[in-house]
């Protein structure tokens, strides 16, 4: 797989597009493409560090899965999202499980390659710290919302985050390949409560509910609902 051909698509993400040109080139030159089949495990909690990944096609579900199959958001990531950097900093085993959702293509930069690159260019540590801090901010936002915001606002907010690639996309996506129940589980909402909220958003013409996907019809009104 010629991973350099994916540069233009990766450049649609804020993190990669703001990297120094040499670091962009180094990641692409040393990376390997990896294909996963639907449901295939990439890594599990407790696995040794294996490097950094970027989603090129398809999507990956990342989360700490409970006995009731609930995961903490963000749980489903797509192009141009990068992940796996936590173990780069602490060298400890993986903290989450990662599975392919559908046929998926990933870009993989091995841990040893990254450490060698950072040994030669320690100034690049800051860029990986920014990648990790973005996820840390999302975690704090989720905890804050869980304690003080009504369910309608929380659901609208995370729907907006997913549409915007968790802050990575330069342009929001209109179609989200995510079932209603999956998003409800991410936010620890009951099926009944979430369906009432989804139906309300659909009745207002903000979203359209389809089987296994959610279409954003009015992004600005969704943004308003998320900040109410």
Description:
With 228 residues, this protein is an alpha+beta fold. It has 2 domains: 140 residues, Jelly Rolls (Sandwich), CATH 2.60.120; 78 residues, Winged helix-like DNA-binding domain superfamily/Winged helix DNA-binding domain (Arc Repressor Mutant, subunit A, Orthogonal Bundle), CATH 1.10.10. The protein is 43% helix and 21% strand. It is built from 10 helices and 9 strands. Strands 1, 2, 3, 4, 5 and 6 form a 6-stranded antiparallel sheet that branches. Helix 8 packs across helix 9.
Condensed summary:
It comes from Pseudomonas agarici. The chain has 228 residues and is α+β, with helices and mostly antiparallel strands. The chain has two domains: 4-143, Sandwich (Jelly Rolls); 149-226, Winged helix-like DNA-binding domain superfamily/Winged helix DNA-binding domain (Arc Repressor Mutant, subunit A).
Radius of gyration: 18 Å
Number of strands: 9
Q: What is the 3D form?
A: elongated
- Overall CATH class of the largest domain: Mainly Beta
Q: Number of helix segments?
A: 10
Uncertain regions spanning at least 5 consecutive residues: none
CATH superfamily of the largest domain: Jelly Rolls
The major β-sheet equals:
6 strands, antiparallel
The CATH architecture of the largest domain would be Sandwich
**Total domains:** 2
Question: Remind me, CATH topology of the largest domain?
Answer: Jelly Rolls
Mean pLDDT: 86
Q: Beta-sheet strand percentage?
A: 15-25%
Q: What percentage of residues falls in helices of 4 or more residues?
A: 40-55%
Structural class comes to alpha+beta
Q: What string gives the helices and strands in order?
A: HHHEEEEEHEHHHEHHEEH
Distance between the termini: 46 Å
Domain Cyclic nucleotide-binding: 15-118
GO molecular function, one term: DNA-binding transcription factor activity
InterPro entries: cNMP-bd_dom (IPR000595), cNMP-bd_dom_sf (IPR018490), Env_Response_Regulators (IPR050397), HTH_CRP (IPR012318), RmlC-like_jellyroll (IPR014710), WH-like_DNA-bd_sf (IPR036388), WH_DNA-bd_sf (IPR036390)
Organism: Pseudomonas agarici
